[in-house]
Amino acid sequence: MHPTMTFAAHLAETTGKLLLDYFQRDNLHAQLKADHTIVTEGDFAADQHITAEIQAAYPGEGIISEESSLLLEDTDRPVWVIDPLDGTTNFSLGLPVWGVSIARLVNGVPDTAALYFPVTGELFAAQGGEGAYYNQQRLSIVDGRHTPLKPYFATGSRALRRYQVNIRYKMRIMGAVAYDFCSVARGSAIVGFCATPKLWDLAAGWLVVQEAGGIVEVLSGPSPFPIQSDLDYSQMDYPTILAATPALAAEVRQGIKLK
After folding, report:
1. pLDDT band per the 50, 70, 90 thresholds, residue 39
2. 171-218, pLDDT tens digit by residue?
3. Read out DSSP for the chain?
4. Which of 63, 154, 157, 182 is 20 to 30 A from residue 218's alpha carbon, by CA?
5. Cα 48 from Cα 19, distance rounded (Å)
6. Rounded Cα–Cα distance for residues 159 and 168 (Å)
7. Is the model's pTM score more than 0.85?
8. pLDDT digits (tens, 9 = 90+) for 67-77
9. Which residues are 114's β-sheet partners?
10. Residues 6+ away with beta carbon under 8 Å from 11
11. Residues 6 or more apart whose Cβ sits within 8 Å of residue 39
């Protein structure tokens, strides 16, 4: 495995194990952020752990995190984009679908990715040009053919609040954008649509889906990549289509309309 991917995967796993110490605590401290999303003490502990490990191993590289730095001074150096706890609402409710998302961007685009979901023991990793992996096994997305023995579904996040979605697959909302991406990369979901993901929600999953052979594209507006130094990414949403094939991506695009 590529050494940077190995580092990212190990970091995602150790952070996930740290978060398990906070999971299902009766006295877990949580609060609402300015955007009315939940943040817990686990988010902050995970953020501090990831940031410290990256700074030690890759000094001088930039970091964008949901819970800390949001602005970049420049994009000439590699930049790490992290979501220390994706699926915080699930986490705070004691539900198992949540995880850690870590990406390293080179020249403004994802080059390394690792996502770990500790309750289910699922580790996804990818390296640009070298493929994607699920628990160290090479990932390759299915060709998109529906069979009775493989009842594929569509995955999405907040899609039904803002959009009319008319596609032939049943929509399942997992509550964690990172898991939506990984569900498509793994071939469990055949398509997906995430309505309001932030940069840290999608950076790692974007590479995993692409390296597994899938399609990732924005529905409308600018692409998140390459990243820019003058943007406050806390204010940027990227409605994103995920699909196993280009034909399925086009089908999803046709089936989504703003309300």
Report:
1. low
2. 888 999 999 999 999 988 999 999 999 999 999 999 999 999 999 999
3. --HHHHHHHHHHHHHHHHHHTTTT-TT--EEE-TTS-EEEHHHHHHHHHHHHHHHHHSTT-EEEETTS----S-SSS-EEEEEEEE-HHHHHHT-S--EEEEEEEETTEEEEEEEEETTTTEEEEEETTTEEEETTEEP-------BTTB--EEEEESHHHHEEE--SS-EE--S-HHHHHHHHHHTSEEEEEESS--HHHHHHHHHHHHHTT-EEEESSS--S-S--TT--GGG----EEEESSHHHHHHHHHTEEE-
4. 63
5. 12
6. 15
7. yes
8. 776 567 677 89
9. 102, 125
10. 50, 53, 54, 102, 114
11. 30, 31, 32, 33, 67, 88
Distances, alpha carbon 219 to alpha carbons 1, 7, 258, in Å: 33, 32, 11
- What is the rounded distance in angstroms from the CA atom of residue 199 to the CA atom of residue 224? 7
Write out pLDDT tens, residues 11-29.
Answer: 999 999 999 998 976 666 6
Helix axes 177-186, 199-211, angle to 10 degrees: 0
Pull the structure tokens for residue 185: 């990369």
180 is written with which tokens? 């939506």
Bridge-based pairing state of the strands 153-157 and 189-194: parallel
- Amino acid sitting at position 221: G
Nearest to 118 by CA among 14, 5, 8: 14
Task: For residue 111, report the phi and psi dihedrals to the nearest 5 degrees.
Answer: -125, -25
List the structure tokens of 189: 């979901």
